[in-house]
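P.,

For your records, the input lines for the assembly:
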Amino acid sequence: MTPDEVAFELTVDGVRHEVTARWSESLLTVLRDRLGVRGPKTGCAHGRCGACAVRADLGDGAPHVLCACLVPAATAAGGSVATIASIGGPDGELSDVQEAFLAEGAVQCGICTAGFVTAATELLETNPDPTRTEIEAALYGNLCRCTGYGRIVAAVEAAARTRRQQEAP
Amino acid sequence: MLLAAPCFALPETVGEALTALADRPDAIVVAGGTEVMPDLLWRNRRAAGFVSLRRVGALRGTTTVGGELVIGAGTPVAALTGAPDAGLRAAASSLGTPLVRTEATIGGNVVSALPYRNLLPTLLAGGATLELTSATGTRVVPFDGFVTAPGRTRLAEDELLTAVRLPVPTGFADYAKVGRRNAQFVATVSVAITCRDGAVRLAFGNAGPTPLRADAVDTAATALFAHRATAEDLRAAVAAAVDPPEDTIASAAYRRHALGVLTVRLVTRAQGAAA
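Structure tokens returned:
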């Protein structure tokens, strides 16, 4: 290890890794380039587009969705990260939100999709019946240059509706 | 200390953070990383390491002590979107995106000290004070005067900003900004207001090199609030008090005009709230 490197432990999608990285490296760089975890995408790399959104517990017991590009990776030492790979089933089964994105035509080029699904999944965990305004507010940090957002909002509404119907007594 | 490498420290207490900083004088103190990481990416800033405050639990959260809100410097902006102070709430809610607000902290917003930072006018209008902690103890200074130039503050090299204190809100408070577009924008100019017992206090962002307020503006605004002056009087007082920058985003003349418009708008809202 060189003096400008730092070594720490990080759990990604349930798998524990020993990471050695330069002190300034972002969580996104460590995930993609050092660990080969390619679910989070590199879009703007400065917190505007949300393509790198993951759900992370940075060791403070308050897991939440964040931009992996903005987090110095070593601040997550001992913490855990759940990427899009944790949202579907272990054998590639799609989650209800992912199914809704496909059914509603909310996926075009796909670079934003993992981030949108991550943010939308978090929204439905905390607010099972969001209004259109609440959906737009929750997805404000995710950019899509293909769809115009209409199909994405429709997909989140559809996923929420399906989930409520399934959970109704 | 959770992690201590030559160029990286991950302290768990303020004391450990101060020690880590003393051992690494050329390191940057980083909290959320939302400003520092893009700065390093674009080579806007050089650094020789990080002292991360991300895991110092004592810096997070808001308490009420003796009539003041004491907001830990590491409290994320997302937590302030539900703050009891309506001005702080409005400024926090329009900062960045939800994914940025969970990481960006009030302390980072204050110490980065750029003229367009969302929370600064609110803290100036609200009469905030700052707790600055070093190995020798804690001093409390007014936020007014803390920022000395864009990106420069009175924080000493061996100090950390540990908390921001605001009087528990009574009365009306709000915040408004304009920018180049309607999403994810930094303030071309911004204005914060408090109105307590008929006394209006205003503060401006990006209206000069540092957060700015003026007694003449507050006098004119208080008079307008009480229908003893006109909106034109207030706009003239604002135009005379501010010294806005001229840059590629907007001319100084545009900023001066927009500051007058936002100011009158906020005083009108305060009148509406009092009616």
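Two observations worth noting. Chain B has three domains: 3-52, 57-167, 172-274. The mean pLDDT of chain B is 96.

Regards
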